[in-house]
């Protein structure tokens, strides 16, 4: 799962990144209004943490831009401005939640998880597909009651596939999901193929085969069998 943290307090932003990275989120940062607006227009995210007071502009204008483009990304306003007017205005524009500073990082993590679960997986804690059972809170995968041990990249790739079941997804979109805006720095996306190959091997060893189909020249598709 990929997050964008729009926060001009660098120490707080780094603390958030450190904590959420340990929870297996891919985290990107933006410290100004202009870079934040650029990122939300160029990249896809599962959730955006949005401060209101930013160098160069107001975070509510970024939120307006997100919703004007019908972008369904989850947005949590994270701000020291705890007035009722700011909270109501943010929720009216289209924020999913509002968390006032200071806050505890475990609470932030749970709010992010709740939004992603509601938006992407119809509020389910357990995902099932082709005999695979994914426990989202535990970040575990099993087949027939037996655990399948995956790396973080393989786990995120499987989650991305199941979340886009029966849809063709490109290598570029998978690379962006796994590595964030660093994907632009790679000459190619061959590392995605390596993770797909390893994931398919582990699933086949667990008895799950032929779920991932290579769509020549386009990408891959997770097939519900």
Automatic annotation (TrEMBL):
<dbReference type="InterPro" id="IPR001789">
    <property type="entry name" value="Sig_transdc_resp-reg_receiver"/>
</dbReference>
<keyword id="KW-0597">Phosphoprotein</keyword>
<feature type="DNA-binding region" description="OmpR/PhoB-type">
    <location>
        <begin position="124"/>
        <end position="224"/>
    </location>
</feature>
<feature type="domain" description="OmpR/PhoB-type">
    <location>
        <begin position="124"/>
        <end position="224"/>
    </location>
</feature>
<dbReference type="InterPro" id="IPR039420">
    <property type="entry name" value="WalR-like"/>
</dbReference>
<dbReference type="InterPro" id="IPR016032">
    <property type="entry name" value="Sig_transdc_resp-reg_C-effctor"/>
</dbReference>
<keyword id="KW-0804">Transcription</keyword>
<dbReference type="GO" id="GO:0032993">
    <property type="term" value="C:protein-DNA complex"/>
</dbReference>
<dbReference type="GO" id="GO:0000976">
    <property type="term" value="F:transcription cis-regulatory region binding"/>
</dbReference>
<dbReference type="GO" id="GO:0000156">
    <property type="term" value="F:phosphorelay response regulator activity"/>
</dbReference>
<dbReference type="InterPro" id="IPR011006">
    <property type="entry name" value="CheY-like_superfamily"/>
</dbReference>
<dbReference type="InterPro" id="IPR036388">
    <property type="entry name" value="WH-like_DNA-bd_sf"/>
</dbReference>
<feature type="modified residue" description="4-aspartylphosphate">
    <location>
        <position position="51"/>
    </location>
</feature>
<keyword id="KW-0805">Transcription regulation</keyword>
<feature type="domain" description="Response regulatory">
    <location>
        <begin position="2"/>
        <end position="116"/>
    </location>
</feature>
<dbReference type="GO" id="GO:0005829">
    <property type="term" value="C:cytosol"/>
</dbReference>
<keyword id="KW-0238">DNA-binding</keyword>
<dbReference type="Pfam" id="PF00072">
    <property type="entry name" value="Response_reg"/>
</dbReference>
<dbReference type="GO" id="GO:0006355">
    <property type="term" value="P:regulation of DNA-templated transcription"/>
</dbReference>
<keyword id="KW-0902">Two-component regulatory system</keyword>
<dbReference type="InterPro" id="IPR001867">
    <property type="entry name" value="OmpR/PhoB-type_DNA-bd"/>
</dbReference>
<protein>
    <submittedName>
        <fullName>Response regulator transcription factor</fullName>
    </submittedName>
</protein>
<dbReference type="Pfam" id="PF00486">
    <property type="entry name" value="Trans_reg_C"/>
</dbReference>
